[in-house]
Amino acid sequence: MRGLWGRSRRERDDTPGHSRTRPEHDVDTALIIEAARHVVTTRVATQASLARHLFVAPIMADELLARLEHCEVVGPATPGPSRRVLATSAELPGIIAEFERREETGD
């Protein structure tokens, strides 16, 4: 069974044939947390919504969505602008705590 964070770093990095298992650019943890809060509370997961509410460029909004998808906060991209929000408000404190823990440990 996959956990909240998917496969371990070693599995992601060493698996042949997986071209993009992690977002390409480093994203600040505080910004990821804000994106998670916004997406879960509004139940809207679009590039435009993140760009507008977090004051980031569209490319950064895409990176945030990729990171949130990797952590199973939102579902994969589908036809249309919005992604399905998988996490609930009740899960948000645990998600934020996990982001903060991973930032401290460097995972």
TrEMBL record:
Basic and acidic residues: compositionally biased ranges: 8-25
Domain of life from the UniProt record: Bacteria
Region spans: Disordered: 1-25
Protein name in the entry: FtsK-like protein
Organism: Frondihabitans australicus
